[in-house]
Design a protein that fits this description.
heterotrimer, A alpha+beta (742), B alpha+beta (163), C alpha+beta (289), C: 289 residues, 4-stranded antiparallel beta sheet, 26% strand
């Protein structure tokens, strides 16, 4: 039997194509007779469409023009509730809302066409802030602008205040953040009234798009086919929005009878597609004088933009993560996702948790300060342990040693010595240094009953050549899906990694293993890969064509013989929840996630008081993640997530004007370069999770949850400023320090 | 609608082969490569010269192909990602990007690799600071850069016979 | 790619004289196109309003760096990479090297030209403060002849400059007497690389004992165009360098500059940082003595 490959950094399945330029992204495809498509969008944040005018001098007869009137089925992008139109009809509710679609074979002439369509809007008063939405200055959605509200209660917060020796309050804000995948969004569609619709695209969730098209066109499922092309980054930005573009391309293909390609340019992608939900978080924390948590009262509000899309789910995750890896007997979290007249906000790695974790970890440094305790001492006295319950009432049923992780992170980063030295040496210097940390957790998989609802399926089949193919809807978008699935299958079957193939995610061929989101691909879908592979092995052994022990060659041979004798050999596995996992949707209590990854991150910064520029000098990321399937890929996830978290903390500022992002160019939306990110040190602790493949948990989102508060806690040490809002740009730091002096 | 003007004929050398094509004079080299010549390995990330995803080597110098007009490549020698490997044999930088995690989603990878190759051709023993500066014009959203540095450092070692 | 490409002309004149004849024949009809690092960005965004361009990239007469006893003269098509590769530049004009190194990334430095940068007249350009600190002069050529002007007189307003429609910037020369003394350059951008500046400061000073014999202070991103802070210079010239003169200069600087709020930064920040950089420069000068 070949040596097991799980736990080793095998050669990536997707590697060679990517480094030679052979990998095919959607814009690399060209079809005969193909048209290019563009979207004409609302210039106003809210109002009624008075007229749509087509300028003179453009050969409109050559163009395909689509409006809402052309939609065969329901005019919506089906997701959770069907409130978001595919094309605005009569009213618009946010700037950049799609109104008209155009197609033409000549991409340059098409741009003339886009310029030549004017949409006249009779304005209605619009709202742009959480405050105005909560105050109901205008009702722009539903009866009270509220997409969703959640209440989590543990113990009795109100009665606990009396027992507290100290009560500390704080208010925190996190801004929007653009996913900024380097490959802009794009889709190609062909549509035939007989054969149906086929989509090729840059996407994370083939079956989300499948459902959206079925509703838009009122077509049966077998008439819709979604094929994922190589995807140049997603981070959640290609979770739900691609459905919109696929619908648009399909409408143009339907009307024109030709293949249509829509590729967003960067300015359009940034202004029109989803971004991270801005958040306002209020903490009220009661503690005993010896630093024990008695009560936590948290208000968590997310700005969802103009339509519901995924806001309830983002709210859910942010809420569940809001009280962190701590034991507190009395907790109340009241959360709300509200509407404003901005393009809908959406999925972005972390999905609500970066927002609530930032607030918590900043707040806890402050609570420690009020108590006269070192921040790590306050954490140490309150870290949750096995057998205790999280805020939603979930009993921690795995060994967790937050203090051990913290000590490891501190050793690796020389935290204590540096903290002391910086405090001593900063006085009177123009460059101040600081070191700070954040402690946090991230639940993998869909929340609560979400995975039950998804009921994901994976198939593993043998080929006539004796190779094995994995069939799943999970996409590769940089994280190494194909590689880890192949590792899992290879070890489950006891055969060579090289004999495993991963099918391209194509809804005509692969079952619905759910979306590539929520840190579930390895832990949940990978587990199904493992069990489907084991099922395949059992079938072969059960058929008598394979012994209990075999060589790789014998395995291949038995596949060939089985297929020759019995026909196709395919094993499927469907998700079943781990036993004893119970979630009460109605009361929002119970086992929110099957498993959590646990982490402590340490950031070291230097602050130039002449320019207020902040540089991250060192970063240490320590986490417990179950079994690490591929060390290089896993470390890559941590490093990439940390870099995005540093961006969220210091650089990435979305500048809004009347609901529109005005710095929608890479020149003015600042993402860190190679000069801005230090070497990131990564350490994994591995405590196998029994229900993950080979013991693995999910890690994709974990790193972005804790990076920003670690950085800001370090800046706070360096400068003494109580920073409560991110990003902390140099301008913001200057204002904060001036306010302190005043 | 503005009056249309004519295309021009351009002759240049791409990856060692002579290419003759028609293009509009202000047509981006990026689009010439992808649409006219059919070399889709060079990618578009921003169209504003900020991300470096479209980097190619033009007469031996790294340029953002989204900012170079077709009229200016007459007689030029252009090297794209497709011209890097020698048959089946990958360039050391390509090989190290696979094994050391320098590529994740791969979209910035062609430009990043060419930038690294160009850096090493000028400075075979760069320090990490040199690497950071040399690659500062190439943005990566996936990796956080750590493994890109590692890949380039390993490629240096491989080329100088160490490792 | 938001422009209707077929509407754009980019013609390649075979030499400088032909180019100048073109410009003279239809004044304002043609605009020069060098490395494209500014114009192609506008083209891509659909914001390039001018349609007819002269491709001057290949004009050898506008390339090359030469030196004689009085000047180092750079052709207008000198790229930032050319500047960084010229062996004596770091020693003779280090501020210009700093500026070149901080302009975009390697790919931008390979294609951006000094002449293009000057003519594009962005208020936030990186090289102009160094050029101003070095008392650079520009040679402007046309079919009618040529003239030299001080670069400090070139800009008169936002994108308004002393460049006639039939003229091209041909050469930039830096007086070698401008070397020496204390030199300082600092660009404060949105990040450490590939950044547009929020404040860019270049300073050069000759100090004898404690006296400021001569001083040049140039800034970008704090006014409609890069400029010499003349009022601030006059407050310092002839004075002893010390806490008092530094504060006086900082106070005067607020009157010299006119920073704005924009999507990158705020007027308050720009003013404060400009004053801080001035202080850093002056402290740097006194430390050396």
């Amino acid at each position: 039997m070949p040596t097991p490959v799980i736990g080793t950094s095998v050669r990536r399945k997707e590697g060679r194509e990517k480094v030679t330029g052979k990998a095919r992204y959607v814009d690399d495809l060209k079809f005969p007779g193909m048209l290019h498509g563009v979207t004409v969008r609302s210039p106003a944040p809210r109002g009624t469409i008075r007229s749509i005018r087509f300028a003179e001098g453009i050969p409109w007869q050559e163009f395909t023009v689509v409006t809402a009137a052309d939609i065969p089925g329901k005019n919506c992008v089906a997701l959770i509730v069907d409130d978001q139109p595919c094309l605005a009809a009569g009213v618009v509710n946010h700037p950049e809302e799609p109104v008209v679609l155009l197609a033409h074979a000549d991409a340059y002439l098409l741009e003339e066409g886009r310029r030549g369509v004017s949409i006249e809007i009779e304005p209605l008063p619009a709202i742009f802030s959480i405050e105005d939405s909560l105050a109901r200055k205008q009702i722009i959605w539903g009866s009270d602008n509220t997409f969703q509200s959640i209440v989590v209660e543990k113990g009795d917060v109100e009665s606990a205040w009396r027992k507290a020796d100290r009560i500390v309050e704080g208010k925190y804000f996190t801004g929007s953040q653009e996913q900024l995948y380097i490959e802009p969004q794009g889709m190609i569609a062909t549509a035939d009234r007989e054969k149906g619709i086929t989509i090729w695209g840059s996407l994370q969730c083939p079956y989300y798009i499948h459902k959206a098209l079925a509703v838009l066109f009122d077509l049966p499922p077998e008439k819709i086919r979604i094929i994922q092309m190589e995807t140049g980054g997603g981070f959640g930005g290609k979770e739900e929005y691609p459905s919109m573009i696929a619908c648009h391309a399909a409408l143009l293909a339907w009307k024109s009878g030709k293949p249509v390609k829509i590729i967003y340019d960067r300015a359009e992608d940034m202004a029109a597609t989803t971004k991270r939900h801005p958040a306002r978080i209020r903490h009220r924390t009661g503690v005993s004088r010896d630093g024990r948590l008695l009560a936590m009262d948290i208000e968590f509000v997310l700005d969802g933009g103009a339509y519901e899309t995924l806001s309830p789910v983002v709210l859910s995750r942010g809420t569940i993560h809001a009280a962190g890896p701590y034991e507190c007997p009395n907790v109340r979290i009241r959360s709300r996702a509200i509407a404003t007249n901005a393009p809908p906000h959406g999925a972005f790695r972390g999905f609500g948790a970066p927002q609530s974790v930032f607030a918590l970890e900043r707040h806890f440094d402050r609570v420690a300060e009020e108590l006269g305790l070192a921040p790590e001492e306050f954490r140490r006295r309150n870290f949750i342990r096995e057998g205790q319950t999280l805020a939603v009432g979930q009993v921690v049923r795995e060994p967790v040693d937050m203090n051990g992780l913290m000590e490891r992170a501190f050793n690796m980063s020389d935290y204590r010595a540096k903290r002391e030295r910086f405090a001593r040496e900063n006085r009177g210097r123009n460059t101040r240094k600081g070191i700070g940390f954040a402690a946090f957790l991230h639940g993998a998989g869909f929340t609560g009953s979400g995975e039950d609802y998804l009921a994901s399926i994976v198939a593993v089949e043998a080929t006539e050549e004796g190779r094995v193919r994995v069939l799943a809807a999970s996409v590769e978008m940089g994280q190494g899906t194909n590689t880890i699935f192949a590792q899992i299958a290879a070890d489950a079957l006891g055969i060579e990694y090289d004999s495993i193939e991963i099918a391209q995610p194509d809804t005509a061929n692969v079952p619905n293993s759910g979306p590539t989101v929520a840190s579930r691909t390895c832990m949940v879908v990978g587990k199904l890969v493992e069990s489907a592979a084991l099922g395949l092995k059992q079938t072969l052994i059960g058929s008598g064509l394979l012994g209990e022990r075999y060589t790789a060659a014998e395995f291949a041979d038995s596949c060939r013989r089985y297929i020759a004798q019995w026909g196709p050999l395919k094993s499927t596995s469907q998700y079943a929840p781990p036993p004893e996992l119970h979630w009460d949707d109605k009361n929002y209590r119970g086992d929110a996630y099957g498993a959590y990854a646990w982490a402590v991150y340490v950031a070291e910064v230097s602050v130039d008081l002449r320019t207020f520029e902040i540089a991250v000098e060192n970063f240490t990321a320590v986490q417990e993640v179950g079994k690490v399937i591929h060390p290089v890929l896993a470390a890559g996830q941590i490093e990439g997530g940390v870099a995005q978290g540093i961006g969220l903390a210091l650089y990435e500022n979305v500048v809004w004007r009347e609901g529109r992002m005005i710095n929608n160019q890479m020149t003015n939306y600042i993402m860190p370069t190679s000069m801005d990110i230090p070497r990131i040190r990564v350490h994994f602790k591995e405590i196998p999770y029994p229900f993950g493949p080979a013991g693995a948990k999910g890690i994709g989102e974990l790193p972005i949850d804790g990076a920003a508060p670690a950085v800001i806690n370090a800046v706070a040490q360096a400068t003494g400023a109580n920073l409560t809002r991110i990003p902390v740009t140099p301008e913001a730091l200057m204002e904060a320090l001036e306010a302190m002096r005043a | 609608m503005p009056e249309a003007r004519g295309a021009i004929r351009v002759t240049c050398n791409v990856n060692g082969k002579t290419m003759k094509f028609s293009a509009f004079p202000m047509e981006r080299l990026l689009d010439v490569l992808r649409e006219r010549i059919g070399l889709t390995g060079t990618k578009e990330g921003c169209g504003e010269g900020e991300c470096g995803t479209c980097s190619v080597l033009l007469d031996g110098e790294l340029v953002n192909s989204c900012l170079v007009p077709a009229a200016q490549v007459e007689g030029a020698e252009i090297r794209t990602i497709e011209g890097l490997a020698t048959g089946e044999q990958l360039h050391a930088v390509q090989e190290c990007f696979i094994t050391h995690g320098g590529a994740q989603c791969g979209i910035c990878t062609p430009g990043m690799i060419l930038a690294a190759v160009n850096l090493l051709e000028r400075n075979p023993r760069p320090t990490e600071a040199n690497i950071r500066e040399g690659l500062a014009g190439n943005l990566c959203r996936c990796t956080g850069y750590t493994k890109i540095f590692e890949s380039v450092v390993r490629a240096c070692e491989a080329r100088s016979g160490k490792s | 790619m938001r422009s209707f490409l077929p509407a754009y002309a980019l013609e390649t004149p075979r030499d400088l004289s032909t180019a100048l004849d073109r410009l003279a024949g239809d004044p304002g009809e043609w605009q020069p196109f060098a490395g494209g690092t500014d114009l192609m960005v506008l083209l891509d965004a659909g914001n390039l309003t001018h349609r007819r361009f002269l491709n001057i990239w290949g004009l050898r007469e506008l390339r090359g760096i030469r030196q004689d006893s009085d000047f180092v003269t750079l052709g207008a098509l000198t790229t930032y990479t050319d500047i960084l590769r010229w062996p004596q530049m770091q020693h003779e004009f280090p501020l210009l090297c700093r500026a070149a190194r901080e302009t975009g990334g390697i790919a931008t430095q390979n294609r951006g030209t000094l002449g293009g940068n000057i003519a594009n007249a962005s208020p936030a350009a990186d090289s102009p403060p160094a050029l101003l600190a070095y008392d650079a002069e520009l040679e402007l050529v046309s079919a009618r002849g040529s003239r030299w002007i001080a670069y400090s007189n070139f800009h008169s307003g936002y994108k308004k400059m002393d460049l006639r429609p039939d003229e091209l910037i041909a050469r930039i020369r830096l007086p070698r007497r401008a070397q020496g003394g204390r030199q300082y350059y600092r660009k404060v951008g949105t990040r450490k690389a590939q950044a547009i500046s929020k404040v860019c400061f270049a300073g050069a000073a000759h100090i004898e004992d404690k006296r400021i014999v001569d001083i040049r202070i140039a800034l970008a991103s704090v006014a409609a165009f890069p400029f010499r802070a003349a009022k601030t210079e006059s407050v310092l010239r002839g004075r002893d360098l010390g806490e008092e003169s530094i504060h006086a200069a900082q106070h005067e600087l607020a009157r010299d500059i006119a920073p704005i709020d924009d999507m990158r930064s705020s007027a308050r920040y720009r003013l404060r940082i400009a004053q801080n950089l001035l202080e850093e420069f002056l402290i740097d000068c006194s430390a050396a003595n």
